[in-house]
Amino acid sequence: MPRTKGDHEARRRDVSEAVWQVMAARGFASLTLRAVAVELGATTGLLTHYFPTKRALVEHALDLLERRTLSRPRRPAGKGLAAVRDALLDILPLTPEATDSNRIWVCSWDAALCEPALSTDYARKYAQSRERLTERVTAAQELGELPPGNAAHIAAGAQSFVLGLVVQALFDPAAFPPQRQAELLDDYLATLTARRTEIQR
Predict the structure, then answer these.
(1) Helices marked H in 115-177 — which ranges?
(2) Ordered structural domains, the chain, with CATH
(3) pLDDT tens across 163-172, in order?
């Protein structure tokens, strides 16, 4: 019997899951057609129907990573500074799923830095993240919870802080468990609100 469209889509989902499992278990650098084939229990020949080149595999992996990251459960959108905090908490590796996603993102930086097109795409993704965070910072400023000033500058600093914390937590999870990550984030946000108090004096 010929394969139906449903069969093809089901197989593609299986392939995507195998790609994810390879990245989560062994890192982005270990992503090869052979590794995915072993995870899937298939031949590399079958995978070439989906990924004729290593670049096609990498592009699919990055697209899968972005889709999984965006579909992760998020904290309900609050208001003001609480919304800024929630957005930053959603980035941190506080759960096993978030840890897997962050580990793969960090591992993929090497590939992105070596490929101009990927570098441009990553820069776009991080810029979009800053734009969304800037909107929340602006709202917190309007409520008087953050000091006035360049909201985009504050958002860039917050994004940089939290991405640095992600790296620390991935390398040394014992020293940076979820509770400590949250505490460090709160300490950082406290420095921003302290600036508001200084300005009001």
Answers:
(1) 116-142, 151-171
(2) 5-66 (1.10.10.60), 74-200 (1.10.357.10)
(3) 999 999 999 9
